[in-house]
Amino acid sequence: MLSNIPATRQFIQKYKYATSQLNFIHNISTGWHQHPCIQLSLSLHRHELLTLSTQNETYSAYGFLIRSNIQHKIDSSNTCSIILLIEPIDEHYHLFRHLTEKQDIILLNHENITAVTDYLVKSFLCNNKPDTLTIYLLLSQYLSCHCQFDQRILKAVSFIETLSEKRISSRQVADKIYLSESRFLHLFREQVGINFRAYLLWLRLNDAIEEIQMTDSLTSLANNCGFSDTAHFSRTCKMAYGIRPSDIKNIIQQEVKLNCNTAQCLYGINKKRN
């Protein structure tokens, strides 16, 4: 649930790329949530820490790399920050997965944070999709591995993403890539890290969030994106992002000007872009 501090302005801007999602946020405190993406969270203020809580521990740092499917909540009160979500189907996702195999949470040092922040801001201002391999190399030395994303699953996911409404059975998708349903479901879980049904729900949620500014009715939005009702949409959003869709909609629609003198203040970054 969002922190409810009426006197403090809140800010969210989301930008979706093919296999990643770049979010600019200010003064957002989430509830417990988890998602299938590897998450990179960076403070844009050198004097303001982010607070990250997991089920086992609470961390305060200027930047984190968070393993996928880890239940967590994050507090960026009074802080401008960037969140990058790297999807399981990203071609370099496996490199980040290797980084987080032994540690659920990696605390980033100032050098890493500065390098990645500068790169993401420049990419954003130039309308370029962030290159996840470049980000990986700014965080770590290249790790040679032989991981390969199964092309049949990639074909299945690419097909699903072309659907205007993400409603399709696992049998229908399995038929498309010439696998039995049981083999497809096993391979999908192995490759993507979550089951097929949960991934469909994640795609529906992202479709809905992308459209949330363009409709006055969350009920219509939920129905159009394949949710059974508004309550189902709201529960899914809170489980994946730790924020209700109504809160996201209200914050995005606000005319916010942040009182921030930091050179890389996200309000200034977005103003330059627009």
Strand content: 15-25%
Low-confidence stretches: 1-7
The number of distinct β-strands equals 9
Q: Strand order across the biggest sheet?
A: 1-2-8-3-6-9
Principal-axis shape equals: globular
Main sheet makeup: 6 strands, antiparallel
- Radius of gyration over C-alpha positions, nearest whole angstrom: 19 Å
Succession of helices and strands: EEEEEEEEHEHHHHHHHHHH
The span between the termini is: 30 Å
Tell me the helix content. Answer: 40-55%
**Which structural class should the secondary elements be placed in?**
alpha+beta
Chain-averaged pLDDT: 89
Count of helical stretches: 11
Which terms would index this structure?
274 residues; single chain; 11 helices; alpha+beta; disordered N terminus
Describe this structure in words.
The protein is α+β, with helices and mostly antiparallel strands. Helix content is 41%, strand content 17%. It is built from 11 helices and 9 strands. A 6-stranded antiparallel sheet has the order 1-2-8-3-6-9. Strand 4 (50-54) and strand 5 (58-61) form a beta hairpin. The radius of gyration is 19 Å and the shape is globular. It starts with 10 loop residues before the first strand and ends with a helix. 34% of the residues are buried.
